[in-house]
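User: Let's play a game. I give you a shape written as tokens, and you guess the letters that built it. Ready? Here's round one.
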């Protein structure tokens, strides 16, 4: 028997509660994992609250991330005792996820815990930090190097934003952070931001082209913020877009693309091929300061995760929430 958050739907409304399940209830898969930690990402918040149709079938155990130890495996790559992590692949959406003490899934979705990280640290990073690293890698592939120009990070108080700032700063980039909680400036400067601006400068309708202010962007927000970030990017700059906290719309023009030659990189974290996953996680183990990671991390128990999901969507969570599923 084990504990899990279970989502059901009644009269079109999502209900979430901690339930006791039997291992026989687990879905099909060739690897069974004893979960140590999970985490709460924005998508988890949407799933638990039902604010968006993230979950494809019910009942569902949410949680798009997990870290734990293999208990049983018929997969060629994994043996009992292996420590593994998982991000994405539809887990927590179409297949039972990590906000539980046990999980059963495809071994093809797993990667080994990177050397130098604990399971707790891996979940402090989670999909948010892994996505942040994919954004950084996209800017690097574009050819942007430290000293070339400023990098804007939007939604800086969130998990993606905070880890992006910490990684970029450690690599020597000058980071401008934008946030709706300007009172958190000291926190963002502590993560490595060189400058903090109010999101109000970017989150309303703007001009097709604006004053050039940064060479690269990590955007977690979408909508007007993304459009204005593009309109303010230097010639031949790049924008990595990975989120929609403000909205899914993109009220922009082609002007920044055809007059300044900027590139917009779309960042998906769910279906990324294994080799790029391994590269991103290896970079996180090497390029993320453990002390800065701890500074943005708060740990909660499984029973607290349901209420925390609402706080996350309301913008009341700073940084990362690690869920100890056994607490």
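Assistant: Ready! My guess for every position:
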């Amino acid at each position: 028997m084990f504990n899990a958050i279970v989502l059901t739907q009644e009269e079109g409304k999502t209900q979430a509660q901690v339930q006791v399940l039997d291992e026989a209830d687990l879905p099909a898969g060739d690897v069974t994992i004893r979960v140590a930690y999970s985490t709460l990402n924005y998508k988890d918040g949407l799933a638990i609250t039902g604010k968006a149709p993230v979950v494809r079938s019910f009942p569902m155990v949410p949680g798009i991330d997990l870290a734990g130890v293999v208990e049983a495996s018929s997969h060629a790559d994994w043996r009992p005792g292996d420590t593994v992590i998982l991000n994405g692949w539809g887990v927590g959406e179409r297949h039972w996820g990590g906000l539980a003490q046990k999980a059963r899934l495809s071994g093809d979705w797993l990667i080994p815990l990177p050397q130098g990280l604990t399971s707790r640290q891996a979940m402090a990073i989670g999909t948010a930090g892994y996505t942040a690293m994919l954004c950084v890698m996209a800017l690097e592939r574009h050819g942007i190097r430290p000293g070339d120009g400023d990098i804007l990070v939007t939604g800086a108080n969130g998990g993606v934003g905070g880890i992006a700032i910490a990684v970029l700063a450690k690599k020597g980039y000058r980071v401008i952070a934008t946030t709706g909680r300007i009172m958190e400036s000291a926190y963002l400067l502590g993560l490595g931001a060189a400058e903090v601006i109010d999101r109000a400068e970017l989150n309303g309708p703007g001009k097709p082209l604006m004053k050039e202010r940064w060479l690269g962007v990590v955007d977690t927000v979408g909508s007007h913020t993304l459009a204005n970030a593009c309109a303010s990017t230097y010639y031949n700059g790049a924008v990595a877009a990975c989120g929609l906290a403000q909205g899914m719309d993109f009220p922009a023009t082609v002007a920044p693309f055809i007059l300044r030659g900027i590139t917009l990189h779309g960042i998906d974290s769910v279906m990324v091929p294994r080799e790029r996953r391994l590269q991103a996680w290896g970079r996180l183990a090497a390029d993320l300061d453990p002390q800065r990671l701890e500074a943005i991390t708060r740990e909660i128990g499984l029973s607290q995760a349901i209420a925390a999901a609402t706080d996350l969507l309301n913008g009341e969570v700073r940084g990362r929430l690690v869920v100890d599923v056994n607490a």
